[in-house]
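Data deposition worksheet. Section B asks for the primary sequence of the deposited chain exactly as it was used as input, without tags or linkers unless they were present during the calculation. Section C holds the resulting structure in token form. Section D is free text for depositor observations; keep each observation to a single sentence. Incomplete worksheets are returned to the depositor.
Section A, Depositor: J.P.
Section B:
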Amino acid sequence: MNILAVATSDYIGLLLLIAMLISNRIRRSDSGHFEYKIFSAITILTMIACVVDFLTFYCDGKSGLLMRIINMAGNTYCFMANPIFISSWCLYEDLKLYRSKTRIKRIYTYAFIPATLLGLIALINNFFPIIYTIDANNVYERLPFSYVYYFVDFGYVIFSIYILRKYEERYGKVRFFPLYLMVGPILTGCVLQSLFYGISLIWVSVAVGLTAIYMSLQNEFSYLDKLTGLYNRAYLDYQLEAISKEKKTVGGIMIDVDYFKSINDNYGHHAGDEALIDVARVIIFAKPDKAIATRFAGDEFIILVPDTSEKEIKNVLKSLHDEVDLFNETEGRQYKLSLSMGYSIFHQDSETLDDFLKHMDDNMYEEKQINHIQELAK
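Section C:
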């Protein structure tokens, strides 16, 4: 065992995570998003593991009661943190993609079972050693059952890949979330540490993976609306400018939330924010893979559909209505979602981008008036 090599790897991992956590808090200090709290919790869990990992290696083989306590407590923490980390990562990924706490409760009530069991086994190991032993000389020795942790980790990694692939099959490629940057270092670290006894690479590998993902996600902050997770007005303007130069057929749908003020007045602004997040989910679930969904302003959204036709645009409108109906039937919110929508096809030879946006807005306003008249007639 090379204690200097262990210290170096854990020190690098700790520094990476401290820098990332400080940056994350500065950028997200005003964010109430549950997923960012999970990401911060995962980061803190890994930071502690980097420190504890070094302490266990340092105390291994040293005499004295304190050294033995640190050795046992440190290894218990690392074996508990290991499955908690990887299962929490799956939770974070799922919540970031689907933004549904209902889905989280449904799936992770069961998905957390293996991680919970391994955490309990790590505690029990202090009394009935099956993962590792610490002999009378305070020397740590790994037992065959410890490999179960690697197999479970691998299972959660496969599950995280499955989550992403299923999402992309339905809703298109995810931008700003290169999962391989997270999975690659972790798998490499796990494999090397399982094969070569006495080295410590898992936690520094986790730190590298988290940092790589975090750096990739920085690009989205300038182009994403932080409340809904959709693209923002800046990205819409960028896409419209690119569209005007490509001379391609582009369709657009403008969406406005009906009775949004009533949701705020009756249930509070937190419910209003929740409603906007729900609308964003409806849009993501309904739009074609190639479409670009943006939060235009306030409770207005725009979907751009490149290389489209009027028939396809109308199919998107139908999908949006179907998703709204499904949401109202299944989610059990205290409010019901209602959307007014207007579409337009951009004719570059005869109109400007401002004309394109105005036609969408006019058609949307026309549907809004119809919706209000229908509501009053009920």
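Section D:
The mean pLDDT is 87.
The chain has two domains: 3-221, 233-377.
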